[in-house]
Structure formats: C-alpha cells, structure tokens
Amino acid sequence: MVYLPPNSALDPAFWTPQNILVASGTALLALILLVIRYPKDLIGTSRRSHNVLSLPSALPLLGDTLLALQISFKQKKLLDEILYHQHRVGKGGRPVSITFPSLGARQYILNMPQYVHYCQKTDFETFAKGDNFHRRLSDLLGEHGIFVVDGEPWKRQRKMASHIFSVGNFRTCVQQTIDIDLTKMERLLNNVARENVSINLPDLFFRFTLSSFSQLAFSADVECLPETVQGLNVRNSFADAFDFAQLVADERFVAIFPLWFEHFTPTGFKMRKALKTLRTYCYRTIDLRLSARARGENRGAVDSKNGKDLLELFIDMGLSRKELLPVVLNFLIAGRDTTAQSLSWFFLEIASHPEVVQKIREEIQDSFSDRLNESHLTYDDMKQLPYLQAAFYEAIRLHPAVPKNIKQATQDTVIRPYATNDIDGKRDLPGGGTKEPLPDITIKKGESVIWSDYVMARMPEIWGNDCAEYKPERFLETRDGKTSVRQFSQAIFHAFNAGPRVCLGQTLATYEGMAVIVAILTNFDIIYDYEKLKTDPPTFAESLTHPIQNPYSVRVQRRNNH
Ligand code: HEM
Predict the structure, then answer these.
(1) Contact criterion met (CB below 8 Å) for 230 and 76
(2) Which residues of the chain form CATH 1.10.630.10?
(3) H or E segment and range at residue 483
(4) What is the ipTM of this complex?
(5) Ligand 1 atom closest to residue 342's alpha carbon, by position in its atom list
(6) Binding residues for heme, per the UniProt record (predicted)?
(7) Ligand 1: which residue has its CA nearest to atom 42?
(8) Does the annotation place 467 within a ligand binding site?
(9) Can you identify the CATH homologous superfamily of domain 137-448+455-558?
(10) How confident is the model at residue 256 (pLDDT cuts 50, 70, 90)?
(11) Residue-wise pLDDT tens digits, 27-73
(12) How far is the CA of 58 from the centre of ligand 1 (A)?
C-alpha cells in the first residue's frame, strides 16, 4: 500500500469542489502571468530589447514556433519570410526579433550594414559561430572545420589556408588549372553545339568548379568535367550526397523537434548514407596523398613558394587522416558551390538582359581584340574588364551564395550601430540609409543575431528604390575619365562576408567566374528556353548555400567569329 500524506493532491479525497476551484484559479492566474510575461515570445526567452518589434504572427508562449513549423514543412521559405517582415515590421531598416524553438533563446534579425559592421568588426569576438552552428553542422563539416569553429582552431586554419590565395599563386598555378578546365569546357560546349542538344547549365558549373578546385587545393583529378555530351549523364555521387547533406543541415536551424529526432527519420537514414559517401570520397583523396608522401613523392604544386597545395599545407601542420577530412569538406563547399551558383544566377540574369551581354562582348573586344580566341583570361587581364566584373558582382549581390547567416553572443552586450550612414569612413550607402537613427540592441549571452545578404540586396534603404533590379552599373564609377569597379564597404556589399572572417576565396571566385564567362560569351551564343523560363521560373532552394531549385537548360551555338 502507498502512503499518501493527508491532504495530498494525489489523494482523490483532496479534490473537493472547493479545492478544484482554488487549483483552477491558481492555474489560470499562472497562465495569465506567463502570457503577460511572454505575450509574443517563446516561453523561457529573455525580454525583448526595447525598440525592437516582433512578428505580428508571434503567439504567447509559443513565439514563432508555428512559423518554424511552416518553414520546416516547406509551406514557407525562411528567406521569403525574412524579406517580407523586414519590409513590413522592420521598415526603414529596423531590427526585428523572433523566437524559434530550435535556436533556444531569442534571435534578432539585423539587416542594416551598421549592425553587420558592429557584429563582424567592432565586436567580432562576441559574435561567434557558437553552439548553434557547431551542433548542427559538425557531422557534415567536422568538429574542427573552418566554417564551424571559433578562436584558436579557426585562426590556425585561416592562416594556413591563406597561403594558397597569394597573388603569386594566381599568376601561376591557379591560372594554369583554370586554363585546363576552360579548354575542357569549350570542347564540351562545341560538342553540345554540334549535336544541338540542351544541357543543364548550373550542373555544368558545378562540374567545372568541383574539377578545378579539387585540382587546385588537393591536386586531385576527380574526372567530373567531361568533354562529351554523353559524359554529362554520369552523375557524381559526391555532388549528389553533398547537395542533399546541405539541405538537411540547413533544415536543422528551423526544425522544431530536437536534433536527435532526425536520427530516427527516413531523412536521418539518408543523411547517414550521404555522410558515408562524402567521407569515402574525401578519404580517397587524402589516402592517395598520404601514401604518396610515405613513398617520398612530393605531390601538389599550388603554392608557388613552397610547392605545396592546400592539402599538403595542412598535412604539414601534423593533422591526422581523420582531422584532414573536415579540411577537404569545408574547402570543397567553399570552392565548389559558391562560385558555381554565382555563375548559374549570372547566366540566368543575362537571359533577360541582352544589353548586358552586348556590353560585356564589346568590353572584351575593346580590351583584347581577338586574343581571347586563342587563349583564356589571365589574372592580370581582370583589371581591364570592369563592366564584366560589375555584371558578375551584381548577380552575386542579388543571389548571394551564402544567403543568410547566424552568429551567437558569447557574452551579454549592447550592439551600438553607427549613429550615421557613414560606414567604414565611406559615405556610400547607395540607398541613402535610414532617416531615423537605428536603435541600440541589448543582447544576452546565448542569443543570436541573424542577417541575410539576400534580403539586404532587396532593401531600398541600402541599395535604393531599384534595389531588386539587375543593374551592373551600380558597381561602376568613373574618375578622371577612367571607369573602374566601385569598392563598397564590406558591410554594404556583404556577399563575401566582412571583418576577420571575410571570404578567403573572393579573388579566386572573381577570377574563375570572369574567366568562365569570357570563355563562354566569346565563343558561344546561349539559347535559352524562354517559354520554360516563363512557365517554370527558376527559384532558389533553401540550403546552406544558394542553389537553384529547378535548374534551367540551354542550347549553345558557336559564334561565327571563328
Ligand atoms: C562567389 C563566390 C563566393 C562567395 C559569395 C563567398 C562568400 C563567403 C561568405 C559569405 C563567407 C562567410 C561564411 C560564414 O560566415 O559562415 C565565406 C567564407 C569563406 N570563404 Fe567564401 N565565398 C565565395 C567563394 C569562395 C571560394 C572560391 C573559396 C575558396 C576556397 C572560398 C573560401 C572561403 C573560406 C575558406 C571561408 C571561411 C573564412 C573564415 O571563416 O575565416 N570562398 N565566403
């Protein structure tokens, strides 16, 4: 027999009508107090910083859980939602607060360059990748991958990797590698033109960047860039697994169930398979190199000074086979996806801007006459094509390869945006900035800040009323009769990130992208299926990066300048 103390609520005799009334009244009062405390917030979150509004759809005690659920079930897209609410709730560039259960505490959406500048430069140490990133991405990108770590491990990797991005390397190894792959791509496109077939253009760019980056960073020929049309039918298992794993990892930021739940779902099963494919693929590259080293062979010749490529540099740091895996994966995501996606969006934008194609061709013609029929764009040639670079950057501005980002506060702090629109001492907010001063925001340790370069590109306060239009001219300036690419503050043209963690590969991506565009537009006319583009307009898939969900196909015709 269980002993129940007298008057215990577990004793049925306790529940007299009077006690039921008292208990219900107390519960109701507690609920009312909680609703007053969390009128639009998830229970347990801190008080919102004054002057910061929340979403109108937020519910008492649940915060934005319903929105997270809709995004999780693909009824809504996170980027569209941030854009929508920035224009309404955050009109004038004001911050907006949300409470998503998966991210624990409160999150502040800060899309003005003044805030981004503060978090990424002024108080860089406080706004880290943190637990949010690490817990969701470490199975894909490793415990110590450059994209997921902070502090010393990040600093060491960044310093080491920066060696392969030296100007000396560009003039030698980078140029040579790109040159070889451009020749392959041209042979393929000649065959596509001859056979008059249509090909998936974004897929071609993924193949190009995977091939060239694997060669550059790991001296590995991954044989994914064929010269024949038939070769395009061979799927690349690494690419498929990588695309899938990124989609899943991205969903983890909005999932309403705990992370371990994924393990028991079909997605979890497929994810484990994908991760296995990725590991097998990367270990093949690593093992080949380690055994070559064991035989005393020096492979890898990207770093002109030391005759070492990225993989060799990291092996020299004493990293084990297991520790090299995230290096390969992190750099592949950086080197393959971003540039390929930027090219895919660029070629989509110019489909509806023939005048841009015309101007690019004129610029190439004026600068190089017919030289580019025989050879490819060199690193030093880039300077002579400001219009082309502007056209490429404008596509990257509108379709940034990393469309959203999140940082977590490592301590309590106050974000103090600049009082003026003058960022980095450059008075250059093209949209004129904000009329009202932006509010300071009090942030508690563990809370997050989110910004979206995709949304920032569409904010009139930053880029002007024509912000959503594709206009390369906004990246051009003319001084003393000479036209050059306009340099914005990193926090304004933010697609390549800002501050100490600014993208390491910006010059590589710019050179590679421009070289591909020159090779294609000089030699081929692209024939788009305008009917299909109208009925099935390409849109983005939500992922860690910014792929096209429904890639488009094109045919090509050899230009008659040959
Ligand atoms: C158009 C192409 C590219 C864009 C738009 C881009 C953009 C970015 C962005 C936004 C970040 C910050 C990511 C974060 O905070 O998590 C980043 C970081 C990085 N990018 Fe790029 N990237 C591009 C191409 C490349 C290429 C080709 C490489 C070559 C390896 C590269 C290497 C890196 C690395 C290593 C980092 C990490 C930097 C750090 O955390 O210190 N990127 N990039």
Answers:
(1) no
(2) 137-448+455-558
(3) strand 482-485
(4) 0.98
(5) 1
(6) 503
(7) 505
(8) no
(9) Cytochrome P450 (1.10.630.10)
(10) confident
(11) 999 899 988 888 888 888 888 877 899 999 999 999 999 999 999 99
(12) 34
